[in-house]
């Protein structure tokens, strides 16, 4: 705890010193700051926006969905987190979470393998690659969940074999069974995999939202959890959505 407080104090002191240094240039508009910073970092790194942060003289910079900070003179770029000491709120983390939200309506059920347990009242979507070890671990853990609907969107991003297995699973007479057989029971999918699939559409959605790893879970509020998330964390998230 002491180390954390010391780090926070040092970060705060640094931010304050930058803000003081930037004081004379504070009159610059956010657009001017963006233009000046873009010149300095080069055209290859595209700045999406520049806006005021909670700290006077410090501005939030968005590059893609990544959050950085700069001073009003565009002299410094700060990589780190802003934490409100009074509440303990991690402002940067919250901002990042908001930026990473996925519009639930963009996830079309017709493009997913749908699994329903119990009354299916709780919903979650998962982006999965059939050759992903962490996806297999997650799928085994998910067997513990009840009253849930799971939409699995296959995105073959690991290898050419991932694409072949995804096609074989999707084109099976029973895609849900073929998926479970492979991911949980280790039964290799068979068949030609020569039907029309939504794999390209799923990959495009993943790319649009910056999903670069599997598994990635998405909840109805648009929040995402990367990796083989613990069941206890999934249950906690479901509880927060009630």
UniProtKB/TrEMBL annotation:
It comes from the Bacteria. It is found in: Periplasm. Residues 25-93 form the Disulphide bond isomerase DsbC/G N-terminal domain. CDD domains: DsbA_DsbC_DsbG (cd03020). Residues 1-27 form the signal peptide. PANTHER family: THIOL:DISULFIDE INTERCHANGE PROTEIN DSBC (PTHR35272:SF3), THIOL:DISULFIDE INTERCHANGE PROTEIN DSBC-RELATED (PTHR35272). Belongs to the thioredoxin family. DsbC subfamily. Keywords: Disulfide bond, Periplasm, Redox-active center, Signal. This is Thiol:disulfide interchange protein. Residues 117-236 form the Thioredoxin-like fold domain. Pfam families: DsbC_N (PF10411), Thioredoxin_2 (PF13098). GO terms for cellular component: periplasmic space. Required for disulfide bond formation in some periplasmic proteins. Acts by transferring its disulfide bond to other proteins and is reduced in the process.
